[in-house]
Amino acid sequence: MNLIKRKNLHLTLVRHGESVWNKENLFTGWEDVGLTEKGEQEAALGGQLLAQKGLNYNVGYTSFLRRAQDTYRSITDELRRQSGRTGHRVALMRRPNRQERARPWTTRSCPGD
């Protein structure tokens, strides 16, 4: 096995910004709902904070869900804007999780309401 030795490798895990159903206190599951305005702002802020740390990325992984992809795009757009690397594109890797299934309870309110 040929191992590549690199310094300063970073793994950053990010959850999507507030979704429409999060705002309505509904469990979203695999339902494909978009971000609220607040969720878009949260994603942009995440990109700003990562840029302030001086982090650069070559690849990003996300699900096929719109809220995850919109969060990813907002973060990478902000990273490009903050770094001045407007032509730099971070490769997007999307992979569906075929073992997950939407359940009938995905539209019900969160427990404890």
Key terms for this structure?
113 residues; mainly alpha; two-stranded parallel sheet; 3 helices; 34% helix
Helical segment count: 3
Radius of gyration: 16 Å
Bin the strand percentage. Answer: 5-15%
Count of extended strands = 2
Structural class: mainly alpha
Largest sheet: 2 strands, parallel
Model description:
It contains 3 helices and 2 strands. By secondary structure, the protein is mainly alpha-helical. It has a domain at about 20-95. β1, α3 and β2 (about 90-95) form a beta-alpha-beta unit. The protein is globular.
Quick synopsis:
With 113 residues, this protein is mostly helical.
Can you lay out the helices and strands and say which pair or pack?
Layout: H1 20-23, H2 37-52, E1 59-62, H3 66-83, E2 91-94
Helix pairs in contact: 2-3
